[in-house]
């Protein structure tokens, strides 16, 4: 519907950046990139500097982050920076998109400036919480958790888990399906990472299964049959086990498993 509407509208209207956001939301990344390229020409000259300019910047910041366009992130960041500490509001309070700092955080993260990204996202959470902007708050919590886990996955697990738990509750209550799916994926990755860190030398659950069977004399084919995977997959696991445990062959890996009490029964 929006595509058809835009055939009779000016390409630089707020609807064009809005369409690009929808493309990224539904996974039409090639279409999003094509439209983003057009809008970003000559420092986003196609986007009118009118009352919806900041709204368009917010839309385009979302798109820029999804497309991981570091160069254009710097241009958008410069345009949006004067609005740090304020909310992004469309028209005469038609809609509020939450703190501008959340979009600045996305842009800084995309441009590779992690320190600025964290500062903006922390500021955004404070403003969104104070103003009751719950959808923006949930997005910001997910984004800050993702950023911190990427920068320091070991020491950020507890803080990230707390942020993701609150984001999941809000997203579920408000029916934010796309965000819920993102939060679930990151939460599962964080949980698995936490579990693996408790295993010796960071062995995964599946690698523990493989090394236990290896230590009791099973061949790759026998291990594959027991675990319902291919022999090639088992061979990949064995190579990973040897690398993580600093062992050179299956015999040393078996000795490692016995030494670390990894053999059940």
Task: Report on the architecture of this protein.
Strands 1-2 form a two-stranded antiparallel sheet. It is 72% helix and 3% strand. It starts with a helix and ends in a 6-residue tail after the last helix. It contains 14 helices and 2 strands, in the order H-H-H-H-H-E-E-H-H-H-H-H-H-H-H-H. The protein is mainly alpha-helical and 265 residues long. The chain is elongated, with a radius of gyration of 24 Å. The mean pLDDT is 89.
Topology (elements, then pairings):
Layout: H1 2-6, H2 15-25, H3 29-44, H4 53-67, H5 70-80, E1 87-90, E2 95-99, H6 100-111, H7 114-131, H8 134-151, H9 157-174, H10 177-198, H11 205-215, H12 220-227, H13 231-245, H14 250-259
Antiparallel strand pairs: 1-2
Strand content of the residues, in percent?
under 5%
- Tell me the structural class: mainly alpha
Largest sheet composition: 2 strands, antiparallel
Question: Helicity, in percent?
Answer: over 70%
Element pattern in H and E: HHHHHEEHHHHHHHHH
The number of strands is: 2
Overall radius of gyration: 24 Å
Tally the helices: what do you get?
14
**Form type:** elongated
